[in-house]
Specification:
The chain is an alpha/beta fold. Helices cover about 20% and strands about 25% of the residues. α1 runs parallel beside α6, α3 runs parallel beside α4 and α5 (about 360-370) runs parallel beside α6.
């Protein structure tokens, strides 16, 4: 089925950390996940060399009179102490049921067929945020992404995760932002810079392996070679073993070299590979933990991979995020499939550790709706993970052969699918 036909789908793949939104007709289920010709250029140009009309900032939240808390669900007010651009952001707080929904009804409908929405956001705690684009019948396409606490307002790359009814994407009349706080009713979400980025003309997929585990060589490499695919491994460079005689479960230096020889990209996941949320634990070593891998990768001859970083566990705080921004071209953290062009190249989204069955759904969803889905695996050490990886490789090969998906690398994403205004 052509993805531009906008037919409803029953596909459901839950996003980690998301909570069911309640029973309202406007958003009544858990988050879902989630044509190979020319694509937009690196600045968002379409095949005719023209940027999609809606690409860029659509609403800067300087005039909140255009927004309202839908049916009194939560509240929205200006906050002049935080902003992404301009003088203020919008602070969203939940109602007694722990939910907030704010919407803007447009005077004239907009055509979102070739763009993907996003916002700049931060929150007092980790959660999931949804953007709905509704037509006049209330049918909608929904996009999701995680938000972390204690961060500055930064743009997030949202991905398609739900379709309700048969939305007419050429006649969108309502923009809605939703967050469910559960029992944490004292929490808040700040949003700014409602924007659009170009969508891809066909689905793109990236296969990633995080943590630098030896099973990426012993188990994942043979599977990908069987299906003529390559991947990216993000390695904690301080944990790479000199050789197989050294005890441990991480890759050896020679194994990393063989992955590179097989066409894999070798990127960084910080020197130690530990999560970058509790930065006090690193002390003065925080910066070197993020930047030393660049020297190691370049010294080993993996200059291209030294451009790319994956946040361990997709968590981070302000300082490590700023360091990654400063030193890398592209970085990965998040939790959604089928994102559009990267409006923020340092928070490219991921779909992590799919179970058997979910992998096929993720790939078919991306083939139908387009966008970029980066699928990340960690340890490939049990039957379930091996089955999911085999299923991913097999389905991906078939969809690629049929022209429904294209496998890309981090370099191709950085060079071709980053949107800059």
């Amino acid at each position: 089925m052509d993805r531009r036909s906008y037919l409803a789908t029953g596909l459901v793949v839950a996003l980690a950390g998301c909570t069911e939104l309640g029973s309202s007709d406007e958003a009544d289920a858990e988050d879902d996940p989630s044509e190979t010709d020319d694509d937009h250029g690196s600045n968002g140009d379409d095949t005719d060399g023209e940027t999609p009309e809606l690409a860029g900032t659509f609403d800067d939240f300087e005039d909140l009179s255009q927004w309202e808390a839908f049916q009194g669900i939560g509240s929205i007010e200006a906050d002049t102490d935080r902003s992404y651009a301009g003088s203020q952001s919008a602070r969203l707080e939940p109602d007694d049921e722990g939910q907030v929904r704010v919407r803007r009804s447009l005077d004239d409908p907009i055509d979102v067929s070739d763009v993907v929405p996003g916002i700049a956001m931060t929150a007092s705690d980790r959660g999931a945020v949804r953007i709905q684009l509704q037509d006049e019948d209330g049918d909608y396409i929904e996009y999701s992404q995680q938000v972390l606490g204690d961060m500055p307002l930064v743009r997030k790359n949202f991905g398609v995760t739900r379709i309700r009814g048969e939305p007419d994407l050429s006649e969108v009349i309502v923009l809605q932002v939703i967050c469910w706080f559960g029992d944490d009713r004292d929490e808040a979400l700040w949003v700014d810079d409602f924007h659009f980025v170009p969508d891809t003309d066909s689905g793109k997929v990236m296969l990633q392996f995080h943590g630098g585990y030896e099973t990426h060589y012993t188990e994942a490499l043979p599977i990908l070679e069987e299906y003529d695919l390559t991947g990216t491994t993000f390695v904690p460079t301080d944990r790479i073993r000199a050789d197989v005689a050294v005890e441990g479960d991480r890759l050896t230096r020679d194994q990393v070299g063989e992955l590179a020889d097989a066409g894999w990209t070798i990127g960084s996941q910080s020197a130690r590979g530990a999560q970058l949320a509790d930065t006090d634990a690193y002390g003065d070593d925080l910066e070197s933990n993020i930047t030393d891998p660049i020297d190691w990768l370049e010294d080993e001859g993996y200059d291209d991979g030294a451009r790319f970083f994956a946040f361990p566990g997709s968590v981070y705080t302000e300082r490590p995020y700023e360091l990654v921004q400063e030193h890398y071209d592209l970085a990965f953290a998040g939790n959604a499939p089928a994102q559009g062009y990267a409006g923020n190249p340092h928070l490219c989204s991921l779909a992590t550790s799919p179970d058997p069955g979910e992998a096929t759904e993720l790939l078919e969803w991306t083939a139908e709706w387009g966008g970029i889905t980066s699928i990340a695996f960690y340890q490939v050490d049990d039957e379930s993970v091996l089955t999911a990886l085999e299923e991913t490789a097999s389905t991906l090969r078939d969809l690629e052969a049929d022209g429904e998906l294209e496998v890309i690398t981090p370099a191709e994403m950085a060079d071709n699918y980053v949107y800059t205004e």
